[in-house]
Amino acid sequence: MATHWFSPPVYVKTDRPGVTYGCNNVEGAAEELLKWTKMGPKWRKAVQLCIDAVEDRATPEEARKAFGAAAREEGIFVRNVECRELAQISSHLSVEEDPCTTGTSHDIVW
C-alpha cells in the first residue's frame, strides 16, 4: 500500500516531553490520532477522513486539514515552523533526514 503524503507537515506535541512530531502523511496522522485522549467531533472527523484518504475517497490534503483541527482540539498543535528554522534546529541535534519531508519525531523543546 502506498503512503498518502501531504504538505506542509502538521506539527504536534507527543507524549514525550519536548518532542514534536512533524506528521506529513495520512498513515502517520491515523497512528497519532489513536494515541490521543480527547475523542471529540474534530477527532472523529479526522479519523474518518484518514480512513477515506487511505481508501481514495478523500484527498490527503483533506485529511491533513482535519488532523490539524483535531490537534488544536486536543491541545497539542504546534504552530507551523518554517522549514529553514526547523532544519537549523535539527542540525544541532544531528538529525540527518530533511525535517520538511520526513514524518519523524525530533527532540525539539518549544
Notes on the structure:
The protein is of the alpha+beta class and 110 residues long. The protein is 43% helix and 19% strand. It is built from four helices and four strands. A four-stranded antiparallel beta sheet has the order 3-1-2-4. The longest helix has 15 residues, at 60-74. The termini are far apart. The model is unreliable at 94-110 (pLDDT under 50).
Number of helices: 4
Distance between the termini: 35 Å
How much helix is in the residues? 40-55%
Q: For the report, how would you describe the main beta sheet?
A: 4 strands, antiparallel
Helix/strand order: EEHHHEHE
Low-confidence stretches: 94-110
Our estimate of the beta-strand percent is 15-25%
Strand order of the largest sheet: 3-1-2-4
Name the assembly state.
Answer: single chain
The count of β-strands is 4
- Broad shape: globular
* Coarse structural class: alpha+beta
Rg of Cα set? 13 Å
Rounded mean pLDDT score: 83
What is shown here, in short?
The chain is α+β, with helices and mostly antiparallel strands and 110 residues long. Helices cover 43% and strands 19% of the residues.
Sum up the structure in keywords.
single chain, about 110 residues, alpha+beta, four-stranded antiparallel sheet, 4 strands, about 20% strand, globular, disordered C terminus
Strands, helices and their partners?
Blueprint: E1 5-13, E2 19-25, H1 26-33, H2 41-54, H3 60-74, E3 77-78, H4 83-92, E4 105-107
Antiparallel strand pairs: 1-2, 1-3, 2-4
